[in-house]
Amino acid sequence: MYAVLAIVLPIFALILAGFICRRTHRLGDHAASEINKMVVWLCLPALLFKVTASARWAEIWQPGFILSFGAGTLAVFLLTLAWRLRSGHGLVGASLDGLSAGYANTGYIGIPLCAFAFGHAGLQPALISTLIVVCVLFAIAVVCVEVGLQESRHPGRAIAQVLKALAKNPLVIAPVAGAAWAASGMTLAHPVQSFLDMLAMATTPCALVSLGLFLGQKRRESTVGEGSPWPLVSLKLIGQPLLTGFLAFKVFALPTMWANAALLLSALPTGTGPFMLAEYYRREAGLISRTILVSTLCSLATLTLLMVWMNVGAPSA
C-alpha cells in the first residue's frame, strides 16, 4: 500500500490546503471559481495542446489497448448517461455524472503508478490512456453538455448555438489545434515548449486546490438533492475495471503488460476533469467533488489489492 499511498497522499494534501485556506478565509468566496477559470482557460488547454502536439503515431497506435481501455471508458460513460437520463436527470447533469464515472485520473496517479508497476514500458499505455480520457472522453462530455444547455431551443437554432459554443471552447480548440500541429510534422520551439510545460504542470495542483476551496465553502443550500456519490464511485472503481479487464484479457488477449496496464488504469479514481467542467458550467459540483474525494480514498485499498493480484512491484531496470 505504501507505493499507492506515496502517489495518492499529495492529492489529499493539495485538497486539504485549499480546504484550510477557505475555512480560515485566507482565500475568499470566489477563489474556487476564479482558480478553476484559470485552469479551464489557461492550464488545461496548454496541457491538451502539448499532449496532442507531441504525440507520435508510432507510440500511440496500439489497437488492442486502445479498444480495451477506450471501449471500457466510453461504455461506462454511456451507461451512466443512459441511467441518469432514465432517472429523470437532464442531459447536462447526466453527462457530468457519466464523465465522473468514466474519467480516470491517468495523469496524476496513472503515470507514476504505471512507472512503478511496469517500469519505463508502463509509460506508453499511461500516455495512450491519458489521450483517450483527456481528449476523447472529455470532448464528448463537453459536446453533450453544450447540447443539453440548448435543449429548450428550436433544433436548428440549438445546433447553431452548440457549434458556436464549441468553436469558442478552449477545451475543444486546444486538442484539435494540437492534433493539427502534430500532423504538420513541425516541432515546438523550446520557449513555446517551456511556456506550455509551466502552464500544464499547474493544471492538477490548481484543480485540486480549487476542489478543496469548494469543499471548504459553507453550503447555503441543502445538498440532499444532489444524491450519493457511491453509485458513481462503484461504477468507476468496480464496473469500469471489470469491463476493461474482460476486453483486455478475454476479447483482445493483449500481452500481459498491456492487459495489466489497461486494467490498472481503468481502476484509477475519478480525476479532477469532471469537477472543472461542473464548476465551469455551475452544475452538480457538490456531487462530483464528493465522488472525486471518495473514489480517491477508496482507491488506496482497491489499487493495492489489484497490484497484489497482478504480482507487480518496483520497476525493472
Description:
The chain is mainly α and 317 residues long. It has one domain (2-23, 31-216, 253-310): Na+/H+ antiporter like fold (Up-down Bundle). It contains 15 helices and no strands. The protein has helices at residues 2-23, 31-54, 57-60, 63-86, 91-102, 106-118, 123-149, 155-168, 170-184, 190-201, 203-216, 230-251, 256-266, 273-281, 285-310. The mean pLDDT is 86.
Instruction: Kindly estimate the percentage of residues that lie in beta strands according to DSSP.
Output: under 5%
Question: What is the CATH T-level topology?
Answer: Na+/H+ antiporter like fold
Mean pLDDT: 86
- Structurally, the number of domains stands at 1
Using only CA atoms, what is the Rg? 19 Å
Query: So how many helices?
Result: 15
Q: Write down the CATH class.
A: Mainly Alpha
Compressed to H and E, one letter per element, the order equals HHHHHHHHHHHHHHH
First and last CA, distance: 22 Å
How many DSSP-defined strands? 0
List low-pLDDT spans: none
Helix content: over 70%
Which structural class fits the helix and strand makeup?
mainly alpha
Shape: globular
Characteristics:
Na+/H+ antiporter like fold, 15 helices
SSE blueprint:
Blueprint: H1 2-23, H2 31-54, H3 57-60, H4 63-86, H5 91-102, H6 106-118, H7 123-149, H8 155-168, H9 170-184, H10 190-201, H11 203-216, H12 230-251, H13 256-266, H14 273-281, H15 285-310
